[in-house]
Amino acid sequence: MTDALAIAKKEMRREAGLQRDRAVSGGDPDHMSACAAARVVDLLAARYGDTLPGVVLSGYMAMRGELDPRAVMAAHPGPVCVPVIPGKAQPLEFHRWTPESRMIEGAFGAQIPEAEDALVPEVLIVPLLAFDQRGYRLGYGGGFYDRTLERLRAAGPVLAIGFAHDVQQVAEVPIETTDQRLDLIVTPEQVIWTA
Q1: Three-point CA angle 58, 61, 62, nearest 5°
Q2: How far apart, in Å, are the Cα atoms of 64 and each of 18, 48, 150, 194?
Q3: Which domain holds residue 50?
Q4: 88-146, pLDDT tens digit by residue?
Q5: Using CA atoms, how far apart are residues 120 and 81, in angstroms rounded to an integer?
Q6: For residue 2, what are the CA distances in angstroms to 5, 71, 118, 168, 174?
Q7: Which one, 34, 117, 123, 181, has the greatest CB density within 10 A?
Q8: What is the total count of domains within the chain?
């Protein structure tokens, strides 16, 4: 990554974090999460129909003002998992989650299931700091989702859904060759298909 690209990403992360904080403090985070979650539930039902109970879904445990996807996770009729960071510069692992799962603190303060029951997701709900109309996302800088999506896509079809506040949309996310596009982004107000 060039110095100019690193600086551009750092500045966008800072600004996107401020925008997200303003959205959360100036609105109703639970309502915003519920609106976006309802869109994802409807979208998955329409896309997968009767096969949805066989689809493995990955959500995440929200932190830092992220939209909370637990309503989608709890409503999903099939297996659900959440990401676990196994180490620096590695793809994510995914461990089974249920609403009753005992959770512990994992890397970077993220909550992860205490039980290590590994799953491979076919649909991923992906947190982010910023996104653009093309489907590129700006994360926290570890590259975990980019490595993960690259690996999963090499093995078969995967649906990657960005989950964000509307104010997190930017004109253009600065990208590098390793960045993976999302298939769509869901916000409380809209669904943006990128492919």
Answers
A1: 120
A2: 11, 31, 26, 26
A3: 3-193
A4: 889 999 999 999 999 999 887 889 999 999 999 999 999 999 999 999 999 988 899 99
A5: 8
A6: 5, 40, 36, 24, 11
A7: 123
A8: 1
